[in-house]
Design goal:
Strand content: under 5%
Radius of gyration: 14 Å
Order of helices and strands: HHH
Helix content: 55-70%
Shape: globular
Number of strands: 0
Largest sheet: none
Number of helices: 3
Length: 66
């Protein structure tokens, strides 16, 4: 069963961050929320494995709660 990759796995994290922040630049809060929702669904579809998605949801819910 696949597991959620929690170790750094970006080929170029700075480029990803730059592209993501550029995408949100000059957008309204509502537009940014819609973009984030679409991005989440696209990446979830790419992952595809329900157990991995549930593990990601669980980890995401811990942010700020530690």
């Amino acid at each position: 069963m696949p597991r959620l990759e929690l170790n750094p796995n970006f080929t170029d994290p700075d480029a990803f961050y730059a592209a993501l922040t550029s995408l949100h630049r000059d957008r309204s809060e509502a537009e940014s929320e819609r973009i984030n929702a679409r991005l989440i669904l696209l990446l979830a579809n790419h992952i595809g494995e329900q157990s991995v998605l549930e593990e990601a949801i669980s980890h995401a819910g811990l942010v700020g709660d530690k």
